[in-house]
Design a protein that fits this description.
The protein is α+β, with helices and mostly antiparallel strands. The chain has 2 domains: about 5-110, Alpha-Beta Plaits (2-Layer Sandwich), CATH 3.30.70; about 125-180, SH3 type barrels (Roll). The protein is about 15% helix and about 40% strand. It is built from 3 helices and 14 strands. The chain has a 5-stranded antiparallel sheet, with no helix packed on it. The protein starts with a strand and ends with a strand. About 15% of the residues are buried.
């Protein structure tokens, strides 16, 4: 089966892993050899992000495309029927009735095969927006309120305008030192 390509399948929200495991079960139950199986792999692409839980930084896996499962398969009437018959599958992604295969650059990027890039730290997700009023809960400015002027995600910092002696003063703080007002 040399003509296998990657396709995106839209699923019921929150059921991506269930759909993936149901597709994987179909692959395992197929009596043909691995090379002859028309459906090869199903996956839910994830990425590691840093979140704040209970005031601590935690690295968690987050779905890159909520509501979608990627499937490597040979598209024909049999495979289309098998995938569409799985509980939780809404439809293939494509124009009209015809599923559209993902471009090889997209697949390589998702699988991490793309051009080698230096290993990156997980992206820090800073839960604040410019213009938002926040309260400083840690450090020398603890107890002060201020307005966010800038979010600096690569440093995990936030620039906040605080009123000191009646004058706006800009201070750079770790976003863990803040809470929404």
């Amino acid at each position: 089966m040399a003509d296998r390509r990657w396709y995106a399948v839209q699923t019921t929200a929150g059921h991506e892993n269930k759909v993936r495991s149901l597709i994987e079960r179909r692959i395992q139950d197929d009596p043909r050899s691995d090379e002859e199986k028309p459906i090869k792999v199903a996956m839910v692409p994830t990425q590691e992000v840093v979140e704040i839980k209970n005031g601590k930084k935690e690295t968690v896996k987050r779905k890159m495309y909520p509501g979608y499962v990627l499937v490597e398969m040979a598209l024909n009437q049999e495979t289309s029927h098998v995938i569409n018959g799985i509980q939780g599958v809404i439809k293939f992604v494509g124009t009209g009735k015809e599923p559209m295969a993902l471009r090889s650059e997209e697949v390589n990027r998702l699988l991490g095969i793309a051009e080698p890039v230096p290993e990156e730290e997980p992206v820090q997700e800073i839960p604040f927006l410019v213009g938002q009023v926040v309260e400083i809960v840690d450090g020398p400015f603890s107890g002060f309120s201020g307005t966010i002027e800038e979010v600096i995600p690569d440093k995990g910092k936030v620039r906040v305008s605080v009123s000191l002696f009646g004058r706006p003063t800009s201070v750079e703080l770790d976003y863990l030192q803040l809470k929404a007002h």
